[in-house]
Design goal:
CATH architecture of the largest domain: 3-Layer(aba) Sandwich
Shape: globular
Radius of gyration: 23 Å
Helix content: 40-55%
Order of helices and strands: HEHEHEHEEEHEHEHEHEHHHHEH
CATH class of the largest domain: Alpha Beta
Strand content: 15-25%
Strand order of the largest sheet: 2-1-3-10-4-11
Structural class: alpha/beta
């Protein structure tokens, strides 16, 4: 009798082991890649809440190396990335299989001045203005806004530095002005008594866009092959990402704690910075009109940012 019970126990344990093993095999690996910005928080929220845990194995990598992310996409080592909307369009136009799922950051940048405050681009003539990257999206946006304001961009002394370096020069009073994203704006203001927020880049953008302040800066992208192989899972993930964005906006204290845990940004800084970020998840089909307008304006100043042409309809999924 004991031998029968022993056999039953062994068989039961074997079945449980096989079920667990099969369950782990059945999970679809979903590796996502994002810089340490607000757009990454819905990933951590999804993972910690256990949403879709029975269907996918979600792994999150935080890095600012967008080119590495695109390389990993082509090698099928990651399936989704958070990156600049123009970065994704450039990759798509160059033949990389990537599709825009949503746009989620629409406003994050502000122009800070040192020791003085201004309200018009005209006041920056002969001043030194620091931007993060020559030929980058912010360089385009600033040049576009200055042009629309009727100011000769050549009258402004533009310099280019990575934000971390630019902030140090600004705090030392070696720059007249700098354009920064949140939460660097909040950090700079707290550490620099002589700093002022002179211009809200989003409000300046609205002046040339019928009062619409939204600039399609950052989006969530999927590899085309992953989208084709797992369309249902991608749609479900898009839904939970949307819910994650809503959760961040409705629970700023908890979201800031999540940022401190995973992004190493002090929660008090991040919670305050969230007030200055337009974090709204709008699907690619609903944001397409704004994105195309953004790209058309980009083509006039920096066409190389999207390989000199608009991405076709397949870009939006």
């Amino acid at each position: 009798m004991r031998s029968i019970y022993k056999k039953i126990l062994i068989i039961s344990l074997l079945i449980i082991f096989l079920l667990i093993t099969f369950s782990s095999w059945a999970k679809i690996p979903l590796n996502v890649y994002s810089p340490g910005i607000v757009s990454s928080l819905p990933f951590f929220w999804i993972k910690e809440k256990g949403f879709m845990n029975e269907k996918m194995d979600l792994k999150i990598e935080i890095s600012t190396d967008h080119q590495r992310a695109l390389s990993l996409i082509t090698q099928d080592e990651i399936q989704m990335i958070i990156t600049g909307v123009n970065v994704g369009a450039l990759a798509f136009n160059k033949g990389i299989g990537i599709n825009l799922l949503n746009v989620n950051v629409w406003g994050v940048d502000y122009l800070l001045t040192y020791g003085f405050k201004v309200e018009h681009w005209e006041n920056f003539k002969a001043k030194t203005l620091c931007l993060p990257l020559k030929g980058g999206p912010l360089d385009f946006v600033v040049r576009f806004l200055v042009q629309k304001a009727g100011v000769d961009i050549n009258k402004i002394n533009l310099v280019y530095m990575p934000p971390s370096q630019g902030v140090k020069y600004f705090q030392a009073g070696k720059l007249d002005a700098i354009v920064l994203p949140e939460p660097l704006v909040t950090i700079a203001l707290k550490k620099t008594p002589s700093a002022f927020v002179s211009l809200d880049i989003q409000k300046e953008w609205a002046k040339s866009h019928q009062g619409d302040p939204k600039i399609p800066f950052v989006g969530l992208f999927s590899s085309s092959s992953f989208l084709q192989e797992h369309p249902v899972l991608v749609e479900e993930f898009k839904y939970f990402y949307l819910q994650g964005v809503k959760w961040v906006n409705q629970n700023t204290k908890e979201a800031a704690e999540l940022a401190q845990k995973h992004l190493k940004i002090p929660s008090s800084i991040f919670e305050e910075a969230l007030e200055g970020i337009d974090f709204e998840c709008i699907s690619s089909d609903q944001s397409q009109e704004r994105v195309q307008e953004y790209f058309n304006e980009m083509l006039e100043i920096y066409p190389e940012l999207i390989d000199g042409r608009l991405p076709d309809e397949k870009f939006y999924r």
